[in-house]
Prior knowledge:
Helix content is about 20%, strand content about 35%.
Amino acid sequence: MPSFPIAPKRPYSITQHGETRVDDYFWLRNREDPEVLKYLTSQMDYLDEVMGHTKPLHEALFSEMKNRIQETDSTVPEKRGGYLYYQRTEAGKQYPIFCRRKDSADSPEEILLDQNELAEGKIFCSVSGFSVSPDGNKLAYAVDYDGDEVYTVYIKDLVKDLHYPESIPNTLGSVYAHMGLEWANDSETIFYANLDSAKRPFKLFRHKLGTDVAQDNLIFHENDERYFLYFHKSRDDAYILTLHQSTLTTEMRYLPADQPAGELKVIARRNEGVEYFAAHHNGAFFIVTNEGAKNFKLMRASVTNLNKPQWQEVIPHRADVMLDGIDTFKNHLVLQERKDGLKQIRISAADGMSDVKYVAFPEPAYYFELEDNPLYETNLLRFKYSSLITPVTIVDLHMDTGEWEVKKVDAINNYNKTDYAIERIFATASDGTQVPMSIAYKKNLKLDGTNPTLLHGYGAYGSNLDAEFTPHRLSLLDRGFVFAVGHVRGGSDMGRAWYEDGKVLNKKNSFTDFIACAEHLIQKEFTSKDKLAIFGVSAGGLLVTSCMVMRPDLYKAVIAKVPFVDVINSLSDPTIPLTTHEYDEWGNPVDNKEHYEYMLSYSPYDNLKATTYPNLLLTGGLNDPRVPYWEPAKFAAKLRELKTDDNLLLLKTNFHAGHAGSSGRYDFLKEVAFEYVFLIDRLRT
């Protein structure tokens, strides 16, 4: 076997709470040190060499995944302001093309933005904040070419097909969603947010088209470093709403969208531990809040009288149902809820109380996500539905009748859904808690303990890993894999208490839940220790590496993508993006000794020891603003020093991307194909 790269040791002492730790690989944080890039490159060279025998399989998997999808395709058009907007893709091209047609699908196509043209000569290209002005004549969008999620705003005159001369750097955006830009109703003013040195959105600005960006008006400065400043426009176009969000506390403000020079007014001042979200409807705000309601309740308040004693309760707190989101339409109120671990949609008349109906979903485990639904005056609710075995289906739900109108089912080549099965089962955690799992496999599966299995988990921030469809996963199922999702504590699958039982001083519940899921799959003979792999991304990377450190005997292989593994060091450094924002999620190791000691007891980097570990693939992005590249790099270096086995340890760094990996759809598939190659290669040895 080729010799693996070894990182030099440069001891660095860190003293906290009277205790001194020595970090031999702290130096890997300094990306300006040429030895850092040398080390990361040597790891990639080693990976290429040791995995050289799998290149034919990698090429076959990539081709298989590419051939399964419709390379030339289009989204279902969405009506906004007299136009039908959609995105389409063309075979061989990495990125979408943003288009619209006037009035009807028979009208000529107008290309608003071709992301493939933006990406020419670039390795990475992410578009965020895609927003057309109310008059339909201008487009504002933001682009990130590095993967660090720092966006530059551009404005295009759609009538003249020319760009305005100004651009706005250092703005809020997201690699995962089109957000970060909104128009005032005058179609001349846009709102955007700047980032501070830790990449926290903290200042909201107003920009008038054609003017000097340096003269833009500051609307709000969020001084509290624990809070991120987000904003959006209400569906009825009445208000620009700001959302000031920390982990456990929120505050919202509002500004009339037809008075862009006006002043933001607060809906309810921030109160530690109180979260709320407001949606406007006909002169009132419907407010989802957890004040005195762990699983949240629904209140209503007049815009002209927002004093809390005047708020009216619409839906009280329910111990068995968590209220998870709200959308207002002229004649309907739509709530997203969670009950018994499953998402559900509650539809009512606009008062929130009459003509109540729930959407019936056809499978025991599933996923849905509401689309943008930009129209306020409509009886249609569009959502995306799928399951582990049901391809993505776009549905227009008739809110008056409950009828499903299927607009599109993603075509998956050479796929027959009836060949696959999906189940929802429960594992028993060490404290007796029943942990739900969603699993999928081919129907000819034999429960004899020989099936290769991939167990996926996350368990943080109250976020949930629902049972959604991805076509590339079929490449595993068709090779006899079982795919499982462990809905562990730290998410909010089973309600708010489920989240609270997996954070701060309860964080280890996430790990013991996941271990219980793994043991249950083995006990029920879906798989065995020699055929089980675990997989997690970001905070899910913390989950799987912690479980690997706690129970290295339980798994054959581990994939930790952009993993949060250096818990103490990262959360002790306020210059790292997200740190101060996340003290309520993980704890504050700087000021709280109890938090420090608890985090130190599970931090994967700090708990590595000389023993045998499973095969491990770590990935990182050099420009990742959320989990810095050095976390997987340091973990690899220390594990290489300590482990006593000959199992593979690979570190794969994307030098041109961030947290989400490659931006092009084909490049992304190549990354997934490599992960699957690693699994297949390791689980068959």
